[in-house]
Design goal:
mainly beta; eleven-stranded mixed beta sheet; 2 helices; 11 strands; 12% helix; 38% strand; globular; binds zinc ion
């Protein structure tokens, strides 16, 4: 998948978009725009305030505030494309379970999101069960999870040769498996 250039409706900056994904990110103004509903819904782009040593690549996750079963927690859905299906890569559950509440600042992305908000929300409802009902005793169903406050989270993965490592959860990805990444 190749990123194409569009223009930010807010600052006229170049937008980072994936073909077919109604979610575009503006790096100059740290905003994202969801076009799925026909109107431009603006949401923030946040960067996790962790310092990866050496080179890093900021990869997109979509963060929601999830509530259900009398509790609430942040949920992180992996929003970058992986070229192979069936690889044991994490779908965001490691970050959802390990990261808790992360310190963030306005940020930018190096890779366009490959998921729209609606698709990410569908996955997010399942991921939320890991935090809101980890042992299943609450009998929480994905449909009973409510999600609010979407934001794009840029995770600075440390570049270590061909491997990328998330400094928070320890998740590792082979760089060549990333779609749209030169
Ligand atoms: Zn902008």
């Amino acid at each position: 998948m190749k990123a194409v250039a569009l223009t930010c409706p807010q600052c006229s900056g170049k937008l980072l978009v994936s073909p077919g994904v109604p979610l575009a990110v503006c790096n100059p103004c740290s905003r994202a725009f969801d076009f799925a509903t026909g109107e431009k819904k603006s949401l923030p782009v946040l960067e996790a305030a962790v310092e990866p040593l050496g080179d890093s690549l900021r990869l997109p996750f979509i963060r929601f505030d999830a509530a259900g079963g009398g509790d609430h927690a942040p949920v992180y859905v992996m929003a970058f494309a992986i070229s192979k299906i069936g690889t044991p890569y994490d779908d965001g559950s490691k970050l959802t379970v390990e990261a808790r509440q992360m310190e963030t600042r306005p940020g930018r992305l190096d890779v366009a999101p490959a998921l729209g908000i609606e698709t990410a929300a569908g996955l997010g409802r399942f991921l939320a069960l890991r935090r809101l009902d980890p042992d299943g005793t609450r009998n929480l169903r994905p449909q009973a999870v409510s999600l609010s406050g979407p934001a794009i989270l840029a995770m600075p993965f440390r570049v270590n040769g061909d491997m990328l490592a998330d400094p928070v959860s320890g998740m590792e990805i082979r760089r060549t498996a990333l779609n749209g990444q030169a």
